[in-house]
């Protein structure tokens, strides 16, 4: 193990470092040294034996005499934290090429989100940030999932800072974010059938090339009740006589939940249909004519165009999984069984997932009041 450096330690919540037995301040931008007349960033404050308080007092006097402009120390520490986060993501990249491509896209999206945070707080020093500052930032996306995402990343970063004694409290902990409205759309059987038919014929009245395979995708989304990514990347080696083994991509790095889905008669017929559509050998059950899995955007676009032709509005591919779970509940399956099937680690998630699409049916029937006379 390398020996820890002792000659360049920093005081908590400042740009004051110990260098060569003295406290020195490193300014964000060069400041004119009155003794030498040169613009420098390192400024000697006092000997270490004079104490930390003296160093801070000298710094306060220095900053009174100059107009210090430039970013605070937020970016310095945020960059270090971001580097660690992205390095860990790189190390956890899936080996499967298709999953690796999705992972890389997620990394780019994360970098974009973190870039917005860095830009917004670039003028702050860590010790200056208050819950009000965090609230003002996330309120730009009030009622949207983005607000939860931004607050989550900030909370993780501030926790990292607290563990390193850069901050005493996490300002994001005292900020509440309004949860986005739960989706309540339920795809009816009629809508499902209409979209299936529209997949086969294009706007020009001619048969579509991708329609039959996307029909298979829709059917497997329903019959296997798994997330779209996991069905889209389903491989034939996951299919066995005992069932289809899924390792959900959403939870493989957290709970690691797995689920074995039984193969019913309808599922078996759909899988046979998928085999009959193959124009070339592919390891994927759902694939393009080149044998590669569809991208979420690609297969989503095909579905959306079919919806337009069918005259169906307000539904998405994700609604098929919700339809499957809701229909299973109506068929008599218990929430415990559905939690296992959906690979939810929290039963509350399953409960909310179902209730948002179920319409309670009242059993109360009243009659108009009648006079006794």
Short recap of the structure:
This protein has 373 residues and is mainly alpha-helical. It has helices at residues 52-64, 74-91, 97-120, 131-138, 145-163, 189-198, 211-224, 228-232, 265-276, 296-310, 318-330, 335-342, 347-355; strands spanning 16-19, 22-32, 39-47, 239-240, 243-246, 259-261. The strands form two sheets. The protein has a three-stranded antiparallel β-sheet. A three-stranded antiparallel β-sheet has the order 4-5-6.
Architecture overview:
- With 373 residues, the protein is mainly α.
- The strands form two sheets. Strands 1-2-3 form a three-stranded antiparallel sheet. It has a three-stranded antiparallel sheet with strand order 4-5-6.
- 45% of the residues lie in helices and 9% in strands.
- The chain contains 13 helices and six strands.
List the helices and strands and how they pair.
Layout: E1 16-19, E2 22-32, E3 39-47, H1 52-64, H2 74-91, H3 97-120, H4 131-138, H5 145-163, H6 189-198, H7 211-224, H8 228-232, E4 239-240, E5 243-246, E6 259-261, H9 265-276, H10 296-310, H11 318-330, H12 335-342, H13 347-355
The portion of residues assigned to helices is 40-55%
pLDDT < 50 runs, ≥5 residues: 1-8
Structural class: mainly alpha
Strand count, sense and barrel status of the largest sheet are: 3 strands, antiparallel
SS summary, helix count: 13
* Oligomeric state of shown chains: single chain
Strand content: 5-15%
Using the alpha-carbon principal axes, give the shape.
Answer: elongated
Number of strands: 6
Order of helices and strands: EEEHHHHHHHHEEEHHHHH
């Amino acid at each position: 193990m390398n020996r820890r450096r002792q000659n360049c330690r920093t005081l908590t919540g400042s740009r004051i470092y110990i260098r060569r037995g003295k406290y020195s301040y490193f300014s964000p931008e060069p400041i004119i040294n009155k003794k030498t007349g040169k613009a420098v960033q390192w400024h000697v404050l006092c000997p270490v034996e004079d104490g930390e308080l003296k160093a801070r007092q000298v710094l306060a006097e220095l900053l009174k005499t100059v107009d210090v402009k430039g970013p605070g120390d937020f970016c310095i520490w945020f960059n270090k934290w971001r580097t660690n986060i992205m390095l860990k993501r790189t190390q956890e990249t899936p080996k499967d090429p298709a999953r690796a491509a999705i992972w890389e896209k997620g990394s780019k999206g994360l970098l974009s989100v973190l870039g917005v945070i860095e830009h917004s707080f670039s003028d702050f020093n860590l010790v200056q940030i208050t819950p009000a500052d965090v609230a003002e930032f996330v309120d730009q996306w009030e009622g949207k999932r983005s607000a939860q995402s931004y607050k989550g990343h900030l909370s993780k970063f501030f926790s990292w800072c607290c563990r390193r004694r850069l901050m005493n409290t996490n300002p994001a902990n005292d900020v509440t974010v309004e949860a986005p409205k739960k989706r309540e759309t339920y795809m009816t059987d009629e809508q499902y059938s209409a979209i299936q038919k529209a997949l086969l014929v294009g706007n020009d009245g001619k048969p579509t090339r991708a329609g039959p395979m996307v029909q298979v995708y829709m059917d497997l989304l329903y019959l296997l009740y798994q997330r779209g990514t996991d069905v889209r990347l389903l491989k034939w080696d996951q299919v066995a006589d005992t069932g289809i083994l899924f390792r959900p991509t959403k939870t493989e790095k957290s709970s690691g939940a797995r689920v074995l889905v039984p193969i019913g008669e309808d599922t078996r017929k759909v899988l046979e249909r998928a085999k009959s559509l193959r124009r070339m050998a592919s390891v994927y059950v759902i694939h393009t004519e080149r044998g590669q899995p569809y991208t979420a955007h690609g297969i989503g676009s095909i579905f959306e165009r079919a919806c337009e032709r069918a005259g169906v509005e307000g539904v998405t591919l994700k609604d098929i999984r919700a339809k499957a779970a809701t229909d299973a509940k109506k068929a008599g399956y218990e929430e415990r069984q559905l939690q296992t099937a959906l690979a939810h680690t929290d039963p509350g998630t399953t409960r909310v997932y179902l209730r948002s699409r179920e319409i309670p049916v009242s059993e109360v029937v009243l009659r108009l009041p009648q006079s006794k006379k």
